[in-house]
């Protein structure tokens, strides 16, 4: 009645009433679609539902133009039909001969993915393929969005007529498979790689992307696939391999998989003439992760003869004195040398100031004088073994670090790795010796001794795995024959141990501040003389 009356008013333009918008930017058609909300009126009779759909049909018959218009939420009537989840209204709207290029606002197909209305998405594909292929403001299609949100159900619509969408780039140059790699969605990569291109707009493969964003599970999946693993030495438009990007962004768990792979070429240079190890050396990010990345890469790429040809000036900057040519790297070795010396000093002192003390000359027999009072105690014997191992390993580590300055580069590299390994071996026995010494002094209080055993054992095991896992990885990479034949099943374990090491380092940085102070209190040993006022 309103539409009929408006047509006969002289001061009302044709269809003005139908195209009038309210404060939300909705026309009468928008409001009619919203009134067909299945989730809000499921209890209403079927006649009422039919009436609501008939209302939309009547408005479309009067004026089709508002079906293309967006409201203030950037939603057209088509998008609102998906919003309310009404397949009848969507079917009615799609029955008209629409021009997808005229639809304003958000693409309806992407709305179906966002609302998990996969049946309506299939309805759109069956009715109008052009509507299905609409893109968002970043030029992404439905498969870009599904790859980002990890929605495998959408990829059942990856049919011959839509496969080309998997090969289209968004504004960042990424294909859907690259977005899946960036987000770590291995299942989607498996679905997409048979129909997708390998490289994005920057010449990067999915392995480049996974290494750049530290997606270890994707790197592992790619290196296991006989076809995809061929990407390992592919270079992007800047000449970077996946290893270059893993080092640049310091993603060590991804890097260790690449380094341990027998086909990885560590000598490849990018367009700046840099190998992966050079990026680690020149990185502006300081810290342990950078040092570990460089340490790992040096173990497989120290003999980089190409750089002396591509950059002759490098011949004037040789580092015959050892593994690490820069002052910063020398400081790292010096720091580790100091740590090794401290461990040796502490374990040496503990060898004579043993728990329980020594037998004095006035209380013991001639044969027992100077002997430990707890010599027959098994815990004490374990203490002596742990302390001796710590002492010998730390002393050998000191000698190894000294050799890094005294020999040629090949021996220096091996010496530094060996010294670091020996230092790592010496620290768990030092912790264990301390734990046993404490238990020996409190074992008369059983509950406290049990608590110390449980806490100490947990931390000794964690410290052991954390310290030794990087060196195990490095030494295995030094053994090409072993790596080719036997390293396959070991690689996942190594990467996880290395990940534990990184996590522990982050936790340590979180809870231990540089300005923390250690308060020390004076203590007495069993061999200390009593105070002069004790008897008083």
Polypeptide structure, described:
- The protein is mainly α.
- Among the domains are: 1-134, Alpha Horseshoe (Serine Threonine Protein Phosphatase 5, Tetratricopeptide repeat), CATH 1.25.40.20; 327-511.
- 55% of the residues lie in helices and 0% in strands.
- The protein is built from 25 helices and no strands.
- Helix 14 packs parallel to helix 16, helix 15 runs parallel beside helix 17 (276-282) and helix 17 runs antiparallel to helix 18.
- The longest helix is centred in the C-terminal third of the chain and has 34 residues, at 409-442.
- The relative contact order is 0.05.
- Residues 39-44, 318-326, 477-491 and 504-536 have low confidence and may be disordered.
């Amino acid at each position: 009645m309103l539409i009929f009356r408006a047509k006969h008013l002289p001061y009302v333009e044709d269809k003005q009433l139908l195209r009038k918008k309210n404060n939300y930017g909705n026309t009468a058609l928008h409001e009619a679609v919203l009134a067909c909300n299945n989730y809000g009126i499921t209890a209403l009779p079927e006649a009422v539902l039919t009436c609501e759909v008939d209302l939309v049909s009547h408005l479309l018959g009067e004026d089709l133009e508002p079906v293309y218009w967006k409201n203030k939420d950037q939603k057209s009537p088509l998008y609102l039909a998906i919003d309310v989840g009404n397949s009848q209204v969507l079917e009615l709207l799609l029955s008209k001969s629409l021009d997808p290029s005229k639809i304003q606002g958000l693409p309806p197909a992407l709305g179906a993915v966002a609302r998990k209305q996969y049946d309506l998405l299939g309805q759109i594909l069956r009715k109008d393929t052009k509507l299905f292929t609409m893109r968002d403001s970043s030029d992404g299609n439905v498969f870009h969005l599904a790859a980002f949100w990890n929605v495998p159900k959408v990829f059942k619509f990856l049919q011959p007529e839509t496969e080309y969408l998997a090969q289209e780039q968004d504004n960042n140059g990424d294909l859907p498979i690259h977005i899946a790699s960036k987000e770590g969605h291995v299942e989607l990569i498996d679905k997409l790689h048979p129909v997708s291109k390998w490289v994005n707009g920057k010449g990067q493969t999915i392995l480049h992307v996974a290494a750049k964003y530290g997606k270890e599970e994707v790197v592992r999946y790619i290196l296991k696939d006989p076809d995809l693993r061929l990407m390992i030495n592919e270079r992007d438009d800047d000449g970077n391999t996946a290893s270059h990007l893993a080092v640049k962004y310091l993603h060590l768990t991804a890097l260790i998989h690449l380094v341990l792979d027998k086909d990885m070429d560590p000598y490849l240079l990018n367009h700046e003439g840099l190998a992966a190890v050079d990026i680690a050396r020149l990185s502006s990010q300081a810290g342990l992760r950078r040092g570990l990345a460089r340490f790992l890469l040096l173990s497989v790429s120290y003999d980089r003869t190409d750089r002396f040809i591509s950059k002759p000036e490098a011949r004037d900057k040789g580092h015959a004195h050892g593994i690490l040519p820069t002052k910063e790297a020398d400081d790292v070795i010096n720091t580790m040398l100091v740590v090794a010396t401290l461990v040796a000093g502490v374990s040496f002192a503990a060898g004579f100031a043993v728990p329980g003390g020594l037998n004095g000359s006035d209380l013991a027999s001639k044969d027992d004088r100077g002997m430990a009072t707890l010599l027959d105690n098994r815990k004490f014997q374990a203490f002596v073994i742990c302390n001796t191992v710590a002492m010998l390993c730390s002393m050998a580590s000191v000698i190894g670090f000294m050799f890094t300055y005294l020999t040629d580069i090949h021996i220096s590299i091996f010496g530094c790795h060996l010294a670091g390994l020996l230092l790592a071996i010496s620290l768990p026995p030092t912790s264990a010796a301390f734990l046993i010494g404490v238990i020996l002094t409190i074992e008369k209080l059983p509950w406290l001794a049990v608590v110390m055993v449980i806490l100490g054992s947990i931390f000794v095991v964690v410290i052991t795995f954390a310290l030794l896992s990087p060196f195990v990885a490095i030494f295995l990479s030094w053994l090409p024959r072993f790596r080719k034949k036997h390293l396959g099943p070991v690689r996942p374990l190594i990467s996880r141990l290395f990940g534990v090491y990184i996590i522990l380092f982050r936790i340590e940085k979180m809870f231990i501040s540089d300005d923390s102070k250690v308060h020390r209190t004076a203590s007495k040993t069993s061999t200390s003389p009593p105070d002069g006022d004790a008897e008083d």
